[in-house]
Every structure is written in C-alpha cells, then in structure tokens.
Amino acid sequence: MKNLVILGGGYGGMRMLHRFLPNHLPNDVQITLIDKAPYHSLKTEFYALAAGTISDNHIRVAFPEDPRLTIKHGLVEKIDLDSKAVLMQDGSTVPYDDLVIGLGCEDKYHNVPGAPEFTYSIQSIDASRKTYQMINNLPHHAIVSIVGAGLSGVELASEVKESRPDLKIKLFDRGKFILSAFPERLSKYVQGWFTSHGVEIINKANITRVEENVLYNNDEAIHSDVIVWTAGIQPSRVVRELDVEKDPQGRVVLTKHHNLPTDEHVYVVGDCASLPHAPSAQLAEGQAEQIVQMLQKRWNNEPLPDELPTIKLKGVLGSLGKKHGFGLVNDRAITGRVARLLKSGILWMYKYHNG
C-alpha cells in the first residue's frame, strides 16, 4: 500500500482531498494528512476573526472522512528527503511514498528589530485569536497600528474600525499610496473609504524598529497600544530549512509538473511554491488540481503532459467592513456593495460546497 502524505490542510491540501476522495484514489494508495489543527481554516477570513466580527465557527471547515484517510495532528519538525520520512516534533516519524508539502507561510519581519517580539499577527488562527483578545480588551480611544497596507492590512484596518469605531487606527504603508499593486481607481476608492471613516494612513513609512507599545517610523517614535504586522510573508520554517533550490523569496523551485527537480515523488503546493503569481488561496487550489492529475498519471504509469495549462486566476476581492468592498474580477475593477456581496457569496460556496 502506497502512502501519500500531505503536509498541511490548507487550501491546496483540502482541494486535493476533495479531488481524490471518495472516488478517485487508487485502491493501493492511502492518504495521511498532517496538520496541527483538527480542521481546515479559512485563512482569507482571519482578519475578521482578529477584529472580532466573526467567531471561530465561521472559519472552520471539517476535513473529509474516509477509511483511506488518516489524519495525524501535530507539528512537523523536519522533512528527511533521503529517507523519505517526515519527522514530527513529538518524536514520531511518518514515512511516505509520495509527499505534498503545503505548510503555508509565516510573517516576514525584514530584520526589523523587535518586530517578532512586540507585534501581533493574523497569519494563523491561533495568532488571530490572540490579536482579537488584545484588540477587544483595549480601552476607549486606544491606538491600533497596522504595519502593511496590502490586502490583509486593508481588510484588517477596515474591519477593526467598523467593529471598534472608538479606536484610533493607523495604517502604515511603504508606498506612495495603499494597494499599489491594484489599479489607481481601486486605491483611491479604498483611500477614500478610510478617510471618511477616520482611519489614518501613513504613506512612505519605514518601520526601523519596534519596542513594547512603540513603533518607530523613520526613527520617529509612535505610541501604539497594539501593533499588528501584515507587512510580508515567507515560507514556513520547515521549508526554509530544506536543502533544495529556492527563488529569491525563499520559495521552492519546481518543475513544470510541480515536483522537486531532484525528486519526482515530492511536490510543493501553495505559499511555499515558486510560481509566477503572488501566493493566494485561488492559486493553491489551481495548483492542487494539477498535482492530483500528475499523481494519478504516475500511479497509472502514464506519460506526463509536455506542458500544463496556465492556472487561471479569476481575480481578487477585498472587504471594507461588512457592506463595502473592492476587487478585480476578470481584469475589471469593481467597488462598493457588489464587490462585498461577491466575496461573501464565494466564501459561502467554498464553505458549504467544497469550493
């Protein structure tokens, strides 16, 4: 019996489980899923959990149940590619015949002194819970500083402001304007929403260090009761320590079939994979679909395709509280209630209809 081990029950891992089970897994293959949590989490909604506008129950999805699926809960310590085994922090070892690495990402602090110790995060469900507790317990007129005005920072800032209008929100961004990767129209729309709701945007920010309740922007000390870091991501520690080829962002370089160039039995999916697009849930799911096809062909001793189709991304949607949003859908900019309704609808489809 072959053992397919999937590390991480994120968007990529979850999509693979739903594609294999119950009817598309060969009889001589079993799956072992390793994850630290007993459920799949909707990471795209961690900002709302941190803001206190949704509960844990809203962003938890049960893993599928199947007699050929074994779920092992715990933390991965190391991947031994030579012995084809996953070493766990509890000392146990999980051997594999085929391995899919989908361990996700962590905050990247860009060597800013004090940032890991004195800022909060929304990169995991545990971290988001802690961030919620800190924000929820703040007194009237306390200051919340959010470092990074990409999609995560913008959604968090707007959700916190709507949840706790009594708080002062400061949003720090390195660029001349927020959401610089989006069309100017969307950036201006979001900037206007923040202005009308009293969120302070600090452009051309350069966070030089962080101390307890103090943020230094261009070496100017700014008091903050809570500091949340949303200024970049990097692959998980286990992947960073892998002795394989990586790109400048530390993501693993793969063949066109999504496996290691040196090992056709090891695949990487999601945030840890070097792909031509920025990491996203949508990209991880598209990649997972192709990995499932490659595994099925290899198991059946069928030739692999010379080329794989380009993973098509339909767009990106962001929220501004519960009633407004923004995004790009098929390269078309949309704003307002329509964008927010679209995002809510997609979330509902994913949670209740497996994507």
Structural class: alpha/beta
Could you give the distance between the termini?
30 Å
CATH topology of the largest domain: FAD/NAD(P)-binding domain
> Mean pLDDT across all residues, rounded?
96
- Number of helices in the DSSP assignment: 9
- Give the C-alpha Rg: 21 Å
CATH architectural name of the largest domain: 3-Layer(bba) Sandwich
* Total number of domains: 2
Please list the strands of the largest sheet in the order they lie side by side: 5-2-1-9-20-19
Q: Assess the beta-strand content as a share of residues.
A: 25-35%
The helicity comes to 25-40%
Principal-axis shape: globular
Compute the number of strand runs.
Answer: 23
Question: Which ranges are low-confidence, i.e. pLDDT below 50, for 5 or more consecutive residues?
Answer: none
**Which CATH top level class of the largest domain fits?**
Alpha Beta
Keywords: FAD, Flavoprotein, Oxidoreductase
Cofactor: FAD
GO molecular function, one term: NAD(P)H dehydrogenase (quinone) activity
Pfam family, one: Pyr_redox_2
